[in-house]
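REQUEST ID: PR-0412
SUBMITTED BY: lab tech R.K.
PRIORITY: routine
TASK: structure prediction, single protein chain
INPUT:
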Amino acid sequence: MATRKRPVNFSSTKLIFITILLLAITLANAAGLRETKMTIYLQGFSTGPNATVVAVAGIPGKHLSFTQFGTILVTDDPITETPDINSAQVGRAQGMYATASLDGINSQVSISILFTNTAYCGSILQIQGISKQFDNVRELSVVSGTGRFRYARGYVTFETYFVDKSSVYSVVRCNISVLHY
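STATUS: complete
OUTPUT:
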């Protein structure tokens, strides 16, 4: 005589999964998961001998521009505590932007915020995602971190604070909210 297998009770399986998930969250909080929020300012210079944002590649025969599809820019912007360029420097924003939409509206961002100030010296936050370049507020993901921000996850918003079109100088407010150990 063949033995019949008892059907799996999916509601019991879901209950076990939810219990394990809640336990993992509780353990993560007990292990010292912290939230850090801060506001910093990226100082971008796109022209002159000390340019910090430079177009390095694009479609042959096309003008390299942050609105031209296919343009890749690299950046090494100073980061300050306040919008004033003379305020204390807290780090550098180093990475790449690629204009990723045919209409030039979106760019793919991959930048690292390298902290040089006393509080977070040597720590890094890695930011990645699509930036809708002409939106007042652009939200991207914080996908990882090192040092004081080990295992960071969160988000960042970029808001254009100031633009001087004649000198191609801009200040971007960067609001960061991350969870980390």
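NOTES: Helices lie at 10-30.
REVIEWED BY: pending
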